[in-house]
């Protein structure tokens, strides 16, 4: 059986670090925590799980801190987590099975990263990250912010998931780092250009975000998945600026990189729905349900291929007074989110509407 070192960087994580380490302590052989300047009880809580606590002066560069944390590992493989991540019970069991069966010829293992959950507790957004890597390969982290782990060799995709369960978020940290880099004259990589644009969008700086998304896309150096996401985020910028024409163009631009994704179809459906072009909207929402996505796709938001198009089709068929079809789509939406307020409201509405129509026809 291989041995595993957990390597983490933390700062002021007293609210979540105990939960994280509790979920992983039975899975790893060593816990290494690199603290970048905590002023709360983080270190005291960590000390209940390990004495391997290291200090690293924060230099506004996440890759540097993560690479330092990897240098502390002494086991065969390195696992990395953030303080607000956890292994749920099912994934703990899967991880144990992986650890007992992992061939030492494997250089890296990717896992799902569950980003958000719906009201029923089902995962509705996830990405895939390289999560477990062989120490002797000395894989490096790259990037001051939104850093990534560059890996190669023999790779496998695991069905294990890490769940991201944040309680708080420092909204200004990342954009501050990026703006400092830009002001210092540093030329951002295409990837950093994309993520800087994301930060600008998140801070409602829409015109500047558009500039950097365009800079990223016109470079033609981006990863295809980031190109597609950039198109959707450009559409969000134009939507916030009340520019439906450019919003529409940005969605269509995503077709340059791949076949239409369910998200693109839903966005186009909404565009036509807002104009009361019901049949056009129905066409695109139905496409969102037809398209099959790769279950191991690196970015997934399951709402665009499950309950969301069904709920919108419910509204559209109701507009056309096709009440039975509208009700059927509401029931299908309810199969994914049975306790959603909109689904329950629609259920009562259709019970009355269909009953009234049946009475009128008699």
From TrEMBL:
Q: Which InterPro entries match?
A: Glyco_trans_2-like (IPR001173), Nucleotide-diphossugar_trans (IPR029044), TPR-like_helical_dom_sf (IPR011990)
Pfam families for the chain: Glycos_transf_2 (PF00535)
> What is the protein name given in its UniProt record?
Glycosyl transferase family 2
**Residue ranges annotated for the Glycosyltransferase 2-like domain, each copy included:** 5-95
Q: Which CDD domains is this protein grouped with?
A: Beta4Glucosyltransferase (cd02511)
What are the GO MF terms of this UniProt record? transferase activity
**Annotated keywords:** Transferase
